[in-house]
Amino acid sequence: MPIFDQGYQHWSGTLSGRSWRWLPITRHGIRVALTNRWLRIALVISWIPALVLATALCFWGLIEQQSELIQSFLPLLGFIDREMLLDPRAYRQEAWALCYGYFMLTELRLAMLLILIVGPNLISQDLRYNALPLYLSRPLRRIDYFIGKWGVVVAFLGAVTIVPSIVAYVLGVLFSLDFGIVKETLPLLLASIGYGLIIAASAGTLILALSSLSRSSRYVAMFWLAVWIGSGVVATVLQGIEHQQRRHAAIRLDRRDPSAYVEQELTAARTDWRPLVSYTTNLARVGEEMLGTPAAWDKLAQLRPSAERDMARLRNVGSQYPWTWSAGVLLALFGLSAWLLNRSVKSLDRLK
């Protein structure tokens, strides 16, 4: 009976470039994740807002053309100001910004659900089965391992945010029959792509850091729920308490002047730090600034009668505090996540 040497055998194959050594990890992670039935259902649900966005942009293109196809739907467009329907091209940028704003806000919430399904197993499973020595043996480095795992999150988030944004943009341009629209709306497309990458970079790094803290994916999922839902609940409670205190203080003021009341509310909102407690609110605030939705709402508010204008601003503009506050919180979380990853996933010579 032949006896084979079980020692190390040199591999004489061709190594791929160093810059692409993370790709097999990403491919394997995507294949494994797609075997999850709940993930496939979540992906289908996440593509529904993309269909709505594409339909809305195509619809607006028909409105700009004053197409006969749109005439039968005009009675259903009572929520759109008459001036916008009379001169839709003048409000094209605002209409597109609001469509993309609603789309990204919806996808942001669905992205948190996708990460809940995909993210907890990314590193915790490797820790549980002690697979890190296999990953981190040469020529794979820790940075390759991290990028490979992060690429799994980017792939799924990009599939529901970046790709639909591009497809909807192309359809909107084609239905407008005015290629001058590209000059007006191209910055909006670039902002949408950039915002999708920011969501993937921030949330992807955070879930990887949480996944590296425990060998149990259930605990990691609980950590993520605390970051996603728990922080939002805390921020809502803090805002509710502060609003009630401000409301009681306003009873002593003259509430018969709506503009003075709205201005007081807007002034208080500009310095309100409580929304910073919510992780998703910080992401949403940065997205609002990138997509230009506050400026769009301000312009549309001017179409309202003077008696309704201030209330429209208060109702639609959303968060008023500087977006740089949210950007600072996200950068701090990104740095903390990178530090946790560096501490939790050690190089091969430090593994036990």
**Which term fits the overall shape?**
globular
Largest sheet: none
Count of β-strands: 0
Total helices: the number is 16
In round numbers, the mean pLDDT is 82
Alpha-carbon distance between the two ends: 37 Å
How many structural domains can be distinguished in the coordinates?
1
The SSE string, one letter per element, is HHHHHHHHHHHHHHHH
Derived from helix and strand composition plus strand pairing, the structural class reads mainly alpha
What's the gyration radius in Å? Answer: 25 Å
The portion of residues forming beta strands comes to under 5%
**Percentage of helical residues?**
over 70%
Please mark out the parts with pLDDT under 50 across 5 or more consecutive residues, or reply none. none
